[in-house]
Amino acid sequence: MMRGVCGSILEAIGGTPMVQLRSLVRPGMARVLVKIEGANPTGSKKDRMALEVIQSARRDGRLAPGQPVVEYTGGSTGTSLALVCSALGHPIFLVTSDAFSQEKRDQMAAFGAEIEIVSCPDGKITADLFRAMIARASEIAEERRAYWTDQLNNNDATRGYHSLGEEIWEQSDGQVDAYVESVGTAHGILGVAAALRRKRPEIEVVAVEPAESPVISEGRTGGHRIEGIGLGFLPPAWDGSAVDRVESVASADAHDMARRLAAIEGIFAGASSGANVAAALRVAERLGEGRTVVTTATDSGFKYVSTEVYRRAPEDSGGP
């Protein structure tokens, strides 16, 4: 159903479409549905989390009117927070890195954020990089007397994704056998799983992580190139009891699947979405015909045009 006029941009968050994959799913496999979270105002599912985090803090007095906000971010969380803060009148300071796309940094700045860059010469996403960003955000919060959203340790973030699970249930007519999602802060997969399992407790939940940094499945850390996931350490919110299986996807395979999604299915998304779909197709093959697997296209491919994900010749996009 088409929305009426929104009273503000914040009312445009959520209500994203869901699309069934056609060409990438072979006969005998389960149906695969992809929630297109790039349709949110900043082009990311993180809009849901940012809205809940800021509104909850305002409601209970942790965030005063006009008080600055600070956060560390790979880009999408920062952009979403900057959108919400712009709409609600809060200055925002964001700590990010040149390991993440220029588009994300430009987008954060466009929403009025003040940005500080932590340099990463080799361009790899590692635990040390995240720890450096977190430490600097903590310092800025003290210096500026800002409210630090501290996404890894903020339980409001998990609640922000309940709406995603509820929409998945409604749009699929309750036909969900498995939900597949990559793990960054872990709030996304846990929030969706909680909402879905309130409807159907036996739904299988599958976590996805970078093969080069299989912290969840093997306890081993390493550098990878899938923006938005794989911190290099277990996120504080992680709850292994909420997840049934873990699938590891290599950075190159995630990039390749993102390109194939665009070229074959017309879904333009980033590398974490490529990882989600690559893992979802494995689950669909295992479950077989007559079942339904749901995953998310986490954000828009427009955030990654300058990166190695899309900086490739057309003939490299692959085929079915």
What characteristics describe this protein?
single chain; 320 residues; alpha/beta; Rossmann fold; 2 domains; six-stranded mixed sheet; four-stranded parallel sheet; 10 helices; 10 strands; 37% helix; globular
What's this entry about, in short?
It contains ten helices and ten strands. With 320 residues, it is of the alpha/beta class.
Could you describe the 3D structure shown?
The chain has about 325 residues and is α/β, with parallel strands linked by helices. It has 2 domains: about 10-40 and about 160-310, Rossmann fold; about 45-150, Rossmann fold (3-Layer(aba) Sandwich), CATH 3.40.50. About 35% of the residues lie in helices and about 15% in strands. The chain contains 10 helices and 10 strands. The chain has a 6-stranded mixed β-sheet, with helices on both faces. Strand 4, helix 3 (about 100-110) and strand 5 form a beta-alpha-beta unit. Helix 6 (about 160-170) crosses helix 7. It is globular and about 60 Å long. It starts with 17 loop residues before the first strand and ends in a 23-residue tail after the last strand. The model is unreliable at about 315-320 (pLDDT under 50).
The N- to C-terminal Cα distance equals 32 Å
| Number of discrete helical segments | 10
Beta-strand percent range: 15-25%
Main beta-sheet annotation: 6 strands, mixed
- By CATH, the topology of the largest domain is Rossmann fold
**Helical proportion?**
25-40%
* CATH architectural label of the largest domain: 3-Layer(aba) Sandwich
What sort of overall outline do the alpha carbons produce when their principal axes are compared? Answer: globular
What is the subunit arrangement here? single chain
Order of helices and strands: EEHEHEHEHEHHEHEHEHHE
The domain count comes to 2
Alpha-beta classification: alpha/beta
| Rg estimate, integer Å | 18 Å
Number of strands: 10
- Unreliably modeled segments: 313-320
Question: If you average the pLDDT, what whole number results?
Answer: 94
| Order of strands in the sheet with most strands | 1-2-10-7-8-9
CATH class group of the largest domain: Alpha Beta
